Amino acid sequence: MNMMPMTPERHGRIRERLSLEGRVLASELARDFGVSEDTIRRDLRELASAGLCRRVYGGALPP
């Protein structure tokens, strides 16, 4: 299992994945980053509040 990246690093990696893939799923991010889905959902809420993504059921889309 991967070591849990610190929040700013994880946010950057989520934004990178959004840019490359156009959509991210919380379950896949949690598995890939070695954190809980609750942690990813919290990250996605923070990114959405900053206007950096749009929340959708199960994940997020680019803004």
Protein described:
It is a single chain. Strands 1-3-2 form a three-stranded antiparallel beta sheet. It contains three helices and three strands; from the N terminus they run αβααββ. Helices cover 57% and strands 13% of the residues. The protein is α+β, with helices and mostly antiparallel strands and 63 residues long. α2 (26-33) crosses α3. The termini are far apart. The chain has a single domain (7-61), classed as Winged helix-like DNA-binding domain superfamily/Winged helix DNA-binding domain (Arc Repressor Mutant, subunit A), CATH 1.10.10.10. Keywords: DNA-binding, Repressor, Transcription, Transcription regulation.
- Main-sheet strand order equals 1-3-2
Largest sheet: 3 strands, antiparallel
Estimate percent helicity: 55-70%
Which whole number gives the mean pLDDT? Answer: 93
Number of domains: 1
CATH topology: Arc Repressor Mutant, subunit A
CATH C-level name: Mainly Alpha
C-alpha-based Rg, rounded:
10 Å
Strand content: 5-15%
| Known CATH architecture | Orthogonal Bundle
Number of helices: 3
The total of beta strands comes to 3
What characteristic shape results from the CA principal axes?
globular
- The string of secondary-structure elements, in order, is HEHHEE
Measure the end-to-end span: 30 Å
Poorly predicted ranges (pLDDT <50, ≥5 residues)? none
Domain HTH deoR-type: 7-62
Keywords: DNA-binding, Repressor, Transcription, Transcription regulation
Protein name: DeoR faimly transcriptional regulator
GO molecular function: DNA binding; DNA-binding transcription factor activity
